[in-house]
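ok so for the tutorial part 2 we go from a plain amino acid sequence to predicted structure tokens. step 1 is just haveing the sequence, like this:
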Amino acid sequence: HDCYFSASHAAKDSGIALGLAATQGINAPLAQATFDQYTKLTEMGKGELDKSGIAELTFKGRS
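step 2 — the prediction. this is what the tokens look like for a chain of 63 residues:
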């Protein structure tokens, strides 16, 4: 399917959100988990997938 917002962009934006939270002393565990998952997807070479491609981490081996 078409990519409207890539996983690599989601990783970048999640990282920005984490950085902003940190400057305010805010602990953001969900933002950290989001960043970790999109970063992992990007490192797997799948950063061009739409952000819904996160399912690739759950449903491994799908065709």
